[in-house]
Amino acid sequence: MTQLYALTGKLAELQGMADTDDEGLKEALQHAMDEIQGEFEVKADNIVMLRRNLESDVTAIETEIERLTELKRIKANSVAQISDYLRRNMEAANLKSIKRPLFTVTLALGKEKVIVDNEGAVPDELTSVKTSIAPDKNAIAAKLKEIREHNEAVRKRMAAGEDAEHELIEEPAYAHLERGDSSIRIK
Length: 187
Prior knowledge:
single chain; mainly alpha; 3 helices
């Protein structure tokens, strides 16, 4: 079976040749384009089926990731509970160290940590300030679209013969609009 890009090339080539006055040639070209379009549609069916298979694989992988994540959480909790069990019993027995042939368990003092009881009472020299500045892309997009629409209207007036070039708004250098890739929708 022909590859999709080859079909696309053939179809584009035939469409380019379709601009002719010869009715017989036009009819033959249209017949050839209909055949290629039929092949194109069959290829599209196959691609959609492959896509659906891959989507089901993705779903299965996501489910397995969730299952393994839950298993990891359970195992990590078990490790923490077993370690805590050993620590509490060593503290209760007043044992600081257990030496075995394969390992040594040492009961270490916990690290001191600060608990802030009243944040408002902490002196300024003992605080840090965190600031986050990020561009508001929605506001920027609205402004850029507004400028584009204004300039399009002015250019139409200029094309009609009006002297309106002084009304054009310069597009900002800090951002621009760019169209993303097109997408397909399969229902």
